[in-house]
Specification:
The protein is α/β, with parallel strands linked by helices. The chain has six helices and five strands, in the order βαββαβαβααα.
C-alpha cells in the first residue's frame, strides 16, 4: 500500500509457522504495527517471520526455503535466547532474530532488515550490470579487434550519444551480437 503524507506504507508480512498459537500471536503483533498478514508467500511479501517452536529443524528448513527463494528478508522469532539456533539461522541467511513478542522490537527489526535487504538487492544488481558490461566489452573486442579499454570507450561513447544508460547499451550489444556478422566477415 502506498503511504499518504508522512505515513509509512503497510507491509505484507508472511508468518511461516505451522503452530496456530504462535502464528496467531505474531499475526496480532503484525496487525498492531499496522501491517497486513500474508497468507501465502510470493513476490508481494515484504518480510517473513519464522517462529522457533518445538521443531528446530522445521524452523531452520523454513528459513532456508524462504532465503533460497530470496523474495524477502526473513526474521527469526525466538521466545528465549538460543545461541546455537541463531548461529545456524544466520548461516542459512536469516536477516535478524528477535527474542520477544514485542511490537517495538519487531518494528525495529523490520526497519533494519528492509534496509539491509534493499542494500543486498542493489549490490546484486550492480554486480549483474558490471558483468553485463564486461560481456559486452568482450563482444566488442572480438568484433572490432580492439583492447578492453577501447571496447569500453565504444560503449561509453554510444551511451552518451544515444542518452541511454551504459548498462542498457551493454544489454543491447549482448542481446543482438548473434545477429551481427562475425569478425572475419
Amino acid at each position: 500500500m502506498t503511504p499518504s503524507g508522512g505515513e509509512k506504507p503497510t507491509l505484507r508480512i508472511l508468518i511461516a509457522d505451522e503452530a496456530a498459537a504462535p502464528r496467531d500471536q505474531l499475526a496480532a503483533l503484525v496487525c498492531e504495527l499496522g501491517h497486513e498478514v500474508a497468507v501465502a508467500g510470493g513476490p508481494d511479501v515484504d518480510v517473513a517471520l519464522v517462529a522457533l517452536g518445538a521443531d528446530r529443524d522445521d524452523a531452520l528448513h523454513r528459513i532456508s526455503k524462504l532465503v533460497h527463494e530470496a523474495a524477502c528478508p526473513v526474521i527469526a522469532v525466538l521466545h528465549e535466547q538460543d545461541a546455537p539456533f541463531v548461529a545456524e539461522a544466520a548461516r542459512r541467511g536469516v536477516y535478524a532474530c528477535i527474542t520477544h513478542d514485542d511490537a517495538d522490537e519487531l518494528r525495529g527489526a523490520i526497519e533494519i532488515v528492509l534496509h539491509r535487504f534493499a542494500e543486498v538487492q542493489n549490490l546484486h544488481l550492480s554486480v549483474d550490470r558490471r558483468a553485463q558490461i564486461e560481456r559486452a566489452k568482450g563482444i566488442l573486442m572480438e568484433r572490432h579487434h580492439v583492447a578492453a579499454d577501447e571496447a569500453f570507450e565504444l560503449l561509453r561513447r554510444h551511451s552518451q550519444q544515444t542518452r541511454h544508460k551504459l548498462s542498457d547499451v551493454a544489454r543491447a550489444v549482448e542481446e543482438s551480437h548473434l545477429l551481427l556478422p562475425g569478425p572475419d566477415v
